[in-house]
Amino acid sequence: MDLLPVVDALAPQALPVVRQAFATSWPVFERWRMTSFLVLAHFLAHAAHETRLFRALTENLRYSAKRLTEVWEKRFPTLEAARPYAWDPSDPDPEDVALANLAYGSRMGNEENGTDDDDGWRYRGQGIFHLTGRGAYRQIGQMVGVDIEADPSLVLSEHLLIPCACAFWTWKGMTPYAESDDLRSTTRLINGGDNGLADRAIRLAQAKRLLGV
Predict the structure, then answer these.
(1) Does an H or E element contain 163, and which?
(2) pLDDT of the residue at 67
(3) Which pLDDT score is estimated for 157?
(4) Which of 62, 143, 155, 184 has the most CB atoms within 10 Å of its CB?
(5) What pLDDT score does 9 carry?
(6) Residue 38: in which H helix or E strand, if any?
(7) Hydrolase as a keyword (predicted)?
């Protein structure tokens, strides 16, 4: 099965590395037992949403102060606390590293002194499903047989982009819900809530049509 034409139709402006990865992806989906067209439709719908139609494989850390209090309520309980880390469009060098270290440091498997050793930044969201935290990189690395914990950038490579995404999908136990066409449950397994559910539904309908589901 050649999934590249499906990806091209779903996301005409997909990054070259994404197109290259999907061009040889079928054996990967076979390995992870994700060959059901309904499961693939759900996979592609979530992947398209998470990456802004396969144009963004790294987490965007440019938030307004208000948005920071919404995304990381415990880290930024007030607007005053958030403002030093908020994105200023007039600043050509936003404090992405500082924000990532504060938001993700000392949790999700990141080292205890995450704000000092840049674990939050090193293990920020990357890949199709924006793998986040040292613990997740370690887990997915073990599943695919590559030490991506040692080199997080490997998640973005042509040869590991799809394997890491399939490993994440399997790790979260998403296939049974996709087989039941349960979009809400698969969404919650990805981000813990209903974030982007309406857009995911649009992408799912498109993917289903393209795959003939």
Answers:
(1) helix 161-171
(2) 65
(3) 95
(4) 155
(5) 97
(6) helix 37-50
(7) yes
